[in-house]
C-alpha cells in the first residue's frame, strides 16, 4: 500500500531537529479550538522559553510574513500575537496532541456524539456506532441541556466541548430533552476508545457503487481500495460507475487526500501547496493507474465538505475525471503543520501553506463549485468542529432506502446510467 502516513519533513533548527507534520483539518470536536480560545485559558501558564520557541516558529513558518516583536514583556503582548493568526493555528497541550494522533489514525477517546448548533440549541444529529452514547440510547434530535448538571444554555459548540473535556472523571452525565417528553432524560456515559469507520459502501443493481468517505485518516486509502474491491466482487464485474459522497466530510490529512485522488487519475496535477519556507512548496502529480479503469464518477459535495474533501473533489473535477453535484463547498484552502515544542509533549499547529487546485485556483474562503448545483436543505448542517459522522451503508439497501428522498443521489444515479 502506498504511504498513507502523515507527511513528515525534517526541519533544521539552529541547534536541533524538529519534525513537521502536514495535514489539513482536525475532525475532533475536542481539538478544533482556535488560538483565541487557548489564549484565554493557558497563555499565562507558558514559560518565557516556550513563548520564544512559539515566536520563532511563527517567524519561520507561518504562511504570512507578519511583523512580530522579538520578545514579550507580558502575557497580554503574547495574546495579541496569537490573535493575529488564523483560526486554524493553535497550541496543543499534551492531551490535545495525543488526541490529534488518535483522530488521524481513525480513533479517539470520547462519548461518540455528533452535534450541531441550531437556533441557540445544541442538537445531537448522530451517534457513532458502538460508542458509549449509542449503546446508552442517545438518539438523533435529542437536545443537549446540561453536561454534569451544568447548563449548556447560551453556550456554543466549542464551550460545550470544553465542558465535556474538563470533566475530572471518565464518566460524563448528559441531560437531554427528547421530542415532546415532559421530563428530561439523563445518560451517564463513560469515555472509551472509539474506532471510526472512515468509508462505507453500497451497490446498486445497475453496477453503480456508492462510496461515502466520512474523513481522511491514515487508513482511508486502504479502506477506499478495499471497499471498491468488495463492490466489484459483489457485482461480479467491473463497476459501471461510482458515486463518491463527500457531504459533511470535514477533511483530514493531506497525504490521504492526495493518495485517494491518485487512485482514480491516470495523470495530471492533484494539488499544489505554496508557503514561505522551502518545504511548504509541493506539487503533487498523479501516477499512471486508475482503479476503476475509466468508469464514470460522480462526486457529491455540500457546504460542509472541507479541506481534504475539497482537494479530492477539485482534483477529479479539474482533471475531467468526475462530475460534481451539490452545493458550494466550505472553502478551507490552507495546510496546517504540526511542530513539536520542547521535549515533544506539546506542539504548535500552524498554517504554513495555501493549496491550489489543478487549475491553479485557491479555494480558500470560496470553495469548490459543483458542475450541477443542487441545494439539499434537508441534509444536516453540521458544524465544522463536530465529531465526524459515521453513516452506515448496508449493501444495496442504501439505494432503495435513500435515493427517492435524496435528490443528489438520485441525480448521480441518473447521470451514471445515462453514460
Automatic annotation (TrEMBL):
The chain crosses the membrane at residues 20-40. Residues 97-167 form the PDZ domain. Keywords: Hydrolase, Membrane, Protease, Serine protease, Transmembrane, Transmembrane helix. GO terms for cellular component: outer membrane-bounded periplasmic space. PROSITE patterns: PDZ. It holds the Pfam family PDZ_6. GO terms for biological process: proteolysis; signal transduction. SMART domains: PDZ, TSPc. Gene3D superfamilies: 2-enoyl-CoA Hydratase, Chain A, domain 1, 2.30.42.10, 3.30.750.44. It comes from the Bacteria. InterPro entries: ClpP/crotonase-like_dom_sf, PDZ, PDZ_6, PDZ_sf, Peptidase_S41A, Tail-specific_protease. GO terms for molecular function: endopeptidase activity; serine-type peptidase activity. Belongs to the peptidase S41A family. PANTHER family: CARBOXY-TERMINAL PROCESSING PROTEASE CTPA, TAIL-SPECIFIC PROTEASE. This is S41 family peptidase.
Amino acid at each position: 500500500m502506498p504511504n498513507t502516513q502523515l507527511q513528515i519533513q525534517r526541519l533544521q533548527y539552529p541547534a536541533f531537529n524538529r519534525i513537521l507534520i502536514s495535514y489539513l483539518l482536525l475532525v475532533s470536536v475536542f481539538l478544533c479550538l482556535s488560538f483565541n480560545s487557548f489564549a484565554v485559558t493557558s497563555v499565562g501558564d507558558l514559560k518565557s522559553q516556550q513563548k520564544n520557541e512559539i515566536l520563532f516558529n511563527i517567524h519561520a513558518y507561518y504562511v504570512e510574513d507578519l511583523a512580530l516583536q522579538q520578545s514579550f514583556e507580558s502575557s497580554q503582548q503574547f495574546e495579541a500575537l496569537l490573535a493575529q493568526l488564523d483560526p486554524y493555528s493553535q497550541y496543543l497541550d499534551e492531551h490535545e496532541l495525543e488526541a490529534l494522533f488518535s483522530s488521524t489514525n481513525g480513533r479517539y477517546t470520547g462519548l461518540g456524539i455528533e452535534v450541531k448548533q441550531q437556533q441557540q440549541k445544541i442538537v445531537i444529529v448522530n451517534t457513532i456506532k458502538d460508542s458509549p452514547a449509542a449503546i446508552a440510547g442517545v438518539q438523533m434530535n435529542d437536545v443537549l441541556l446540561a453536561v454534569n448538571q451544568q447548563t449548556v444554555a447560551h453556550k456554543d459548540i466549542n464551550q460545550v466541548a470544553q465542558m465535556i473535556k474538563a470533566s475530572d472523571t471518565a464518566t460524563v452525565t448528559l441531560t437531554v430533552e427528547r421530542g415532546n417528553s415532559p421530563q428530561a432524560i439523563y445518560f451517564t456515559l463513560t469515555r472509551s476508545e472509539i474506532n471510526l469507520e472512515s468509508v462505507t459502501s453500497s451497490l446498486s443493481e445497475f453496477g453503480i457503487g456508492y462510496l461515502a468517505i466520512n474523513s481522511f485518516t491514515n487508513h482511508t486509502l486502504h479502506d477506499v481500495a478495499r471497499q471498491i474491491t468488495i463492490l466489484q466482487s459483489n457485482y461480479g464485474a467491473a463497476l459501471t460507475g461510482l458515486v463518491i459522497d463527500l457531504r459533511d466530510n470535514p477533511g483530514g490529512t493531506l497525504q490521504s487526500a492526495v493518495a485517494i485522488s491518485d487512485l482514480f487519475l491516470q495523470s495530471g496535477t492533484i494539488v499544489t501547496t505554496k508557503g514561505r519556507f522551502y518545504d511548504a512548496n509541493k506539487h503533487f502529480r498523479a501516477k499512471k493507474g486508475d482503479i476503476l479503469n475509466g468508469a464514470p464518477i460522480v462526486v457529491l459535495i455540500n457546504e460542509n465538505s472541507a479541506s481534504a474533501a475539497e482537494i479530492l473533489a477539485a482534483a477529479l473535477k479539474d482533471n475531467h475525471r468526475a462530475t460534481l453535484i451539490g452545493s458550494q463547498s466550505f472553502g478551507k484552502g490552507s495546510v496546517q503543520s504540526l511542530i513539536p515544542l520542547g521535549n515533544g509533549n506539546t506542539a504548535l499547529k500552524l498554517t504554513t501553506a495555501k493549496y491550489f487546485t489543478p487549475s491553479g485556483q485557491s479555494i480558500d474562503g470560496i470553495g469548490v463549485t459543483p458542475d450541477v448545483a443542487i441545494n439539499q436543505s434537508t441534509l444536516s448542517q453540521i458544524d465544522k468542529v463536530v465529531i465526524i459522522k459515521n453513516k452506515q451503508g448496508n449493501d444495496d439497501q442504501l439505494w432503495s432506502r435513500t435515493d427517492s428522498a435524496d435528490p443528489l443521489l438520485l441525480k448521480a444515479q441518473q447521470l451514471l446510467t445515462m453514460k
